[in-house]
Structures are given as C-alpha cells and as structure tokens.
Specification:
mainly alpha; Arc Repressor Mutant, subunit A; 3-stranded antiparallel sheet; 9 helices; 5 strands
Length: 196
C-alpha cells in the first residue's frame, strides 16, 4: 500500500485548497522521478504549477501554503518535502538496490557459472552441509551466496547456501551465529582458486 494512501483524510490536507494539494502531489511525483531526495528547486515550482494550469505567481503562493502547513520546508534554493526520506529511499539507496538487482540478474543469466558452482559444491550448503533443493523457497531452498557481498559474480566468490544460512547474514557482512566470519574466511580459502 502506498505510503501516501491516507493523505486525503490527514489533518494537514483537509483544509488545503485543491491547488495546494495538486502542487504537493505533483511535487511528490517529480522528486520520485528525478530522485532528488525530496528537494524541489524554486525554479521547478512554477513548472509543476503549469502542469495543472496555474500561473507562476499562484504556484509560489501554493508553495507558501505547503510551507505553512509543514508539508514542505523552505530552503535557500528551493523546498524540501517534509519527512520525505523517512518514508522513501534516498537516491543513493535506490542506486545501490539497482546495482544489487543487476548483479543478481547477471548471475542468473550465467547458467554456466551457476552450474559450475552447483557441481563444485555438490548442491550442499557450504555453511551447514544440508542438501539444498533448487527452486523452492523453504529453509532448504538453494541460493548462491557472495562471500564478499560487494564482490563480483565469480566462481571464487560464490558458494551454494541454503536459504536459512544465507538469510541469517546481514548486507553489511556482519554475520549471525549461524554463519560466522570464520566460516566465510575458511570457504574463501577453500574455493579461492576455483575457475570456470
């Protein structure tokens, strides 16, 4: 459900004129599209107003209303949507997510590499030794784990892992009690010379 699903009955919106509501939502659309972390330049406000048929002067007046209602914050060079980053990912977070997705997609397009890792590791989780089942989402479902989360999709950085072990690790490579740093270090030494 959208983070803004309740806006139409939120007290900050109830007394707003329709033009201010329109500017607010056009502003949300703009910052999401341009990934500005909630920032709207002063020059952009009249452009947003033109999108729903109001003049530059009226757009600035509507922006002032949004500031008065604490929906926008006035800055030197424009406006910041109040609490935008409390409810939305930053441009940097979005870029990081896209890079992770691209890395994951590129791995699954490389069937030769995946088959090599599966055969090398004999479809066994390299952390707990359980036989993984590919294509399932249970705890014994098969996954590939990057020993170095920021490393490449290479045979010496990937191992077979069950979902339980793989999900017990955090993105920051701090590991849970199930998967320890020593286990990762030992695995890296074991497979460091793996080549496809």
């Amino acid at each position: 459900m959208s983070k803004f699903h309740a806006a139409y009955y939120h007290p900050k919106f109830l007394a707003l004129e329709s033009g201010a509501v329109a500017l607010y939502f056009y502003g949300l659309s703009y910052v999401a599209d341009k990934e500005t972390d909630g920032f709207i330049s002063k020059q952009q406000v009249p452009v947003l107003g033109m999108m729903f048929g109001v003049s530059s002067v009226k757009s600035i007046r509507l922006a002032s209303i949004l500031v008065e209602r604490n929906l926008w914050e006035l800055l030197n060079y424009g406006y910041q949507i109040h609490d935008y980053l409390d409810y939305n990912k930053s441009a940097l977070q979005l870029k990081t997510l896209r890079a992770k997705t691209a890395k994951r997609v590129s791995l699954f397009r490389n069937t030769e590499l995946m088959n090599f890792i599966k055969n090398r590791d004999r479809d066994l989780c390299q952390y707990c030794g359980v036989s993984v089942v590919w294509g399932t989402h249970g705890q014994n479902g098969g996954t590939f784990d990057h020993l170095d989360p920021n490393g490449l999709n290479t045979a010496n950085n990937l191992v077979v892992a069950c979902r339980a072990c793989n999900s017990s690790k955090n993105d920051g490579c701090s590991v849970s009690s199930r998967v320890t740093r020593e286990m990762i270090s030992d695995l890296y030494l074991k497979i460091k010379d793996s080549v496809l």
